[in-house]
Automatic annotation (TrEMBL):
One Pfam family it belongs to: adh_short
InterPro entries, per the entry: NAD(P)-bd_dom_sf, SDR_fam
GO terms of molecular function: oxidoreductase activity
Top-level taxon of origin: Eukaryota
Keyword Oxidoreductase belongs to the record: yes
Similarity remark: Belongs to the short-chain dehydrogenases/reductases (SDR) family.
UniProt keyword annotations, A-Z: Oxidoreductase
Protein name: Uncharacterized protein
């Protein structure tokens, strides 16, 4: 069976993706903070379908990312066909990870890049795909200050969220130009979907507004359409590596430290932020990035 690796596959869009990949007879390896909760969540989808492996993963810890990647390589009997960096958080109360970064920036941006690099040598060289969950909020920020992951906030964490999602979209596009040609890299906006992602957004805690948003927002099943298209469609339309509504979209230029569209600088700065993680650098050197 083909092998798919997904982070955050225990709820929301991630759970929908797991369900459909199992229907397609994938061996799905799920990275989750709680193996017990994940087992309960996916149990209804386990009858007569593909195979599931559940591994612990904490994206606030680079050590955990490394351990997860090592276990994935052991569990994947063949090369990996799909890597879906789905897990993410939004507007959570400020906290600094043990690695020294604001938590949204590490969970949504730094750890997915790290995981992707660690698993690149295990991707199927004859044809595989790497996906990153982004957001339309990337358009809300036009200057990517590389010091942002070190900055704190008191109440509003949405700027850090938008920053992390813009970084991941632009880095996905950069990565797509430097990996082997048969490994395709995409980022995607799933739409405005009613999931746990909004649990820390104040407006959604009011009953009246919550019911209104339930009515107008997409369901996780509806929100899974674009990433599923990227996962399962044999032939994908050429164009931007950033997708929404099942189509490639224009990724607008941004400034990086006040230099227009200097994504190479963002990439190199990301490597510097991860420089103490030696297994990561071993792979970077192996691939010549």
């Amino acid at each position: 069976n083909p092998t798919a690796v997904i982070t955050g596959g225990d709820s929301g869009i991630g759970l929908e993706l797991v369900n459909r990949l199992l229907e397609a007879q994938f061996h799905v390896i799920i990275g989750t903070r709680s193996r017990d909760l994940c087992s309960k969540a996916i149990e209804p989808y386990m009858v007569g379908m593909g195979r599931v492996t559940i591994l612990e993963l904490d994206l606030t810890s680079f050590d955990s990312v490394h351990t997860f990647a090592f276990k994935v390589v052991l569990e994947a009997s063949e090369k990996i066909d799909l890597l879906i960096n789905n897990a993410g958080v939004m507007n959570v109360p400020y906290s600094k990870t043990a690695d020294g970064f604001e938590s949204q920036c590490q969970i949504n941006y730094l750890s997915p890049i790290l995981l992707t690099q660690l698993l690149l040598p295990s991707m199927n060289p004859r044809g595989s795909r790497i996906l990153f969950a982004s957001s339309s909020t990337l358009y809300a920020i036009n200057n990517l200050d590389t010091n942002m992951p070190f900055r704190s906030y008191t109440h509003n964490g949405l700027d850090h969220y938008a920053y992390s999602k813009s970084c991941i979209a632009h880095l996905a596009q950069h990565l797509s130009t430097i990996v082997p040609p048969d490994i395709k890299v995409y980022s995607y906006h799933p739409g405005t979907v009613r999931t746990k992602l909004f649990d820390h957004t104040t407006l959604f805690t009011f009953k009246l507004f919550s019911k209104l948003f339930d009515f107008i927002m997409l369901t996780p099943k509806e929100g899974s359409k674009t990433p599923l298209h990227l996962c399962l469609c044999e032939y994908l339309e050429n164009g931007s590596s950033y997708w929404a509504d099942n189509r490639p979209q224009t990724l607008m230029p941004v400034y990086v430290d006040n230099k227009l569209n200097d994504i190479r600088q963002l990439w190199e700065d990301t490597l510097i932020k991860l420089e103490n993680f030696k297994p990561f650098y071993a792979i970077v050197f192996k691939w010549g990035f």
